[in-house]
Design brief:
The chain is 59% helix and 10% strand. By secondary structure, the chain is mainly alpha-helical. The chain has a two-stranded antiparallel ribbon. It is elongated, with a radius of gyration of 20 Å.
Length: 153
Amino acid sequence: MSSSPGAGSGTPSPRTDPLTLEVVELIGTVVGRYHEEYEEAAAGHSLTGAQARVLGLLSLKPMPMRRIAQKLKCEPSNITGIVDRLEARGLVERRLDPADRRVKLAAPTAEGKVVARSLRDSLNFAREPLGRLSHEERVTLRGLLRSMLGEEA
């Protein structure tokens, strides 16, 4: 006998009700489209999606490899290889952290910043549909997404 909510009552559990399943499917579709566009934008600059994500992250703030790996949820050794390739292209450089000279930071070069901005500007998929929502709808969506992630709204 199942102890899940709704078991035996004929009511689907909140995890399998049709609305939840539809929302999960829609989120998957949005994420898939975003990744497709991101990969296309990256390819337009002869970058892999992973290289573009690292460059985009570094354009916000230089950071150590370990922190990049944490942010992108991957192994630090993978990040080292990606940064090596970006460095060989002249898009990223390694520099000492002024706060702790034992730590090396990966940082975008001037050219890397230009490429990162171009990548960001070419991603219209999310921006255009979001632009069709009112300010209040975007605030609500942001709050709902933060809530789903366990963050404060």
